[in-house]
Amino acid sequence: LVRDEVQPCKVAMAVPRRSLDGRLFWVLGLVCAMYQIFFVRSAAGQTAQLSVNASPQNTQMIPENMFGIFFEEINHAGAGGLWAELVNNRGFEAGGPNTPSNIDPWLIIGDESNIIVATDRSSCFATNPIALRMEVLCESSGNDVCPPGGVGIYNPGFWGMNIEEAKVYKVSMYIMSSDSMDLTVSLTSSDGLQNLAAYTITADKEDFKEWTKVEFDLQSSERNPNSRLQLTTRTSGIVWFDQVSLMPSETYMRHGYRKDLASMLANLKPKILKFPGGNYVMGNYLSNAFRWSETVGPWEERPGHFNDVWGYWTDDGLGFFEFLQLAEDLGACPVWVVNDGASRNEQVPSATIAAFVKDVVDGIEFARGDPGTSWGSVRAAMGHPEPFQLNYISMGNQECSMHYYKENYRKFYSAIKASYPDIKIISSCDRSTISPVEPADLYDVHVYTSSGDMFSKSSMFDSTPRGGPKAIVSEYAVTGNDAGRGTLVAALAEAAFLIGLERNSDAVEMASCAPLFVNDNDRRWSPDAIVFNSWQHYGCPNYWMLHFFKESSGASLHPSTIQVSNYNQLVASAITWQNSKDGNTYLKIKVLNFGNKAIDLSISITGLENEIQTFGSVKTVLTSGSLRDENSFQQPDKVVPVESPISNAREEMSLVLDPYSLTSFDLLLDLKSSLQMMHSVPESSLHSSM
Question: What Gene3D superfamilies does UniProt report for this protein, alphabetically (predicted)?
Fold first, then answer.
């Protein structure tokens, strides 16, 4: 079988399905069916039988929060990524507390004959003492004339600022000066030659003798994805700057997240959001660990910190509050990974762990406390008087083998349960260590391995004893040579693993992939689910694979078995799910073929209470011409799911599975009207509805 031969039987999901006439969609399905019968099936050779028992008596409910996402500040995922702040090192703190310091990536416009810049400790913010002093030595006229465009400073953002035509950008900054001022704030191209927007601040002497916050909007007249923010003048004098910010006025849910990237997450319909790491929570050293209390309150008062694990500064605009808000915006349950007094190179002994325990309990109060409580009032002042639904705390990051972990864990567990008995606590230790003496509600599992081993781990939980704490597989990914930067084979192997988790959802409570994001300019880890730069983004094959599982959380799992001779490369599951938009019910059958043979698959479904409708069912396939195929900015849709209608769907069907493919069959069980019959499709929101 030559795979290219079956391509005409697919409706590429890059074409919005709503724009197609419904009848044409089903005619194409008939053509595909005939093509499969006469040209493909005879070439398949290998046969298999899939039996599904859809009887309600044999149903197992998958947990409501089964599949979700894990965010770690790695690869500039947040700073310069999901968090929409365009200025890099907005508070000049990245160079450290000693002055003068490095102000990278800020640079000067002019030279040392007409401008001198240096950091000092004159800021009005006690938590952010560093500010930038700019001394201008030239004038608009006289002996020392400034260059025509003036002198000053500029910030290129995170590998260029994406400035879009006619869009509005919000500028805020703090200024102090005893001199008169004529300062131009502008958006320009990376070389400063193209002017996109400008605003002039004029002031007499003494107008800014105290630190003053200045805010205004800039509306761009043109588009440039590689822009910069610059502050220039032709007036001599000394000016101090601090907390210079540039934010798009349009962000996801108006909460500060980059709209395109947050929408990619929303389209997955995640049920959990685990945050903020990972090693990022720990730090190489505790002095650089994520401290939740230093990431809340006004952005300009957050000290920021150096992400010493992944090697870059973050202003912590994306802080504890923003993670909780993101989970709420996505309709996901937040899972907070706390620092339990350990870094990658240090650990606080049990005798002095009490302050860390109190810090975590305070963090829960921030998330859940009434506005009248100490920390609940801080959350309320940030605009969210209602409590966040924080119900899961993960104790550390795979630290069970560390000397003090178990003793410290017991102290955290007791303190949290004493104040919040409903919170579920996740242990970093495996299931065998959990006991009444070492209690846990869930235990954390991380799986990083090759594609072949990941496929074999589809049976990882088959023999796990039922009863007792369940697992949260909070990090899983194919790594190694065959993972590349996100290959088809890696996505397929991970799909097999997730099908195994579905089938063992009585032993597994939740799962989330890792890592989630990578800025293409700072790849610290590959592969990742979503790749982006300042203005582009695409999903890797494993991102599109996750769409096959977004209806699984809270769905009904049905027993299914595959019979096949001399071929152990198939994995399958079957669920019933309901489309929340139109109320229609579907039986979704997923089959993963991890081998190089096309499979003539016979499907037999028994026990259905409602008949399968003749029309309205859809087949979706994720595959490509090569196992190592990847998506890219140049070919973002090279490996994406492809849909085609299933004509004459019924309880007994014969179809062909492509080699190395993930296939789902969404079989319509309950249709509301004849009009919907012609146009209804599953609420899969795959590539066609992006």
Answer: Galactose-binding domain-like, Glycosidases, Golgi alpha-mannosidase II
Please give the C-alpha separations between residue 253 and each of 80, 272, 326, 347, 535, in angstroms, as whole numbers: 18, 18, 9, 39, 19
CB 497 within 8 A of CB 458: yes
More confident residue, 631 or 672: 631
- Rounded to 5 degrees, φ, ψ at 473 are -90, 85
The residue assigned the tokens 């309950």 is: 670
Q: Write the CB contacts of 60 (distance below 8 Å, at least 6 apart in sequence).
A: 505, 506, 556, 557
Using CA atoms, how far apart are residues 634 and 180, in angstroms rounded to an integer? 50
- The predicted model scores a pTM of 0.91
- Which class in CATH covers the domain with range 67-82+252-547? alpha beta
**Token reading at 408:** 């410290």
**Mean pLDDT calculated for residue range 586-598:** 97
How far apart are alpha carbons 291 and 286 in whole angstroms? 9
What does the block give as tokens for 171? 């500028």
Residue in 196, 310, 210, 320 with CA at minimum distance from that of residue 246: 196
Q: Provide the percentage of residues in the chain whose pLDDT is more than 90.
A: 87
Q: How does residue 38 score in pLDDT terms, banded at 50, 70 and 90?
A: very low
Residues 6+ apart with CB under 8 A from 155: 87, 88, 89, 105, 106, 228, 229, 230, 244
Q: Do the beta carbons of residue 118 and residue 133 sit within 8 Å?
A: yes
Integer angstrom CA distances of residue 209 from 128, 179, 459: 19, 8, 69
Task: Indicate whether 663 pLDDT > 60.
Answer: yes
Which residues are registered as beta bridge partners of 617? 646
Residue 4 three-state SS: helix
pLDDT at 590: 98
C-alpha span between 321 and 368 (Å, rounded): 11
Mean pLDDT of 398-417: 96
Q: What is the DSSP letter of 613?
A: P
Q: Could you give the CA distance from residue 23 to residue 126 in angstroms, rounded to a whole number?
A: 67
Q: What DSSP letter does each residue of 624-643 carry, written as one string? A: -SSTT-B--SS-TTSS--EE
Encode pLDDT of 473-496 as tens digits: 999 999 999 999 999 999 999 999
CATH architecture of 46-63+554-671: Sandwich (2.60)
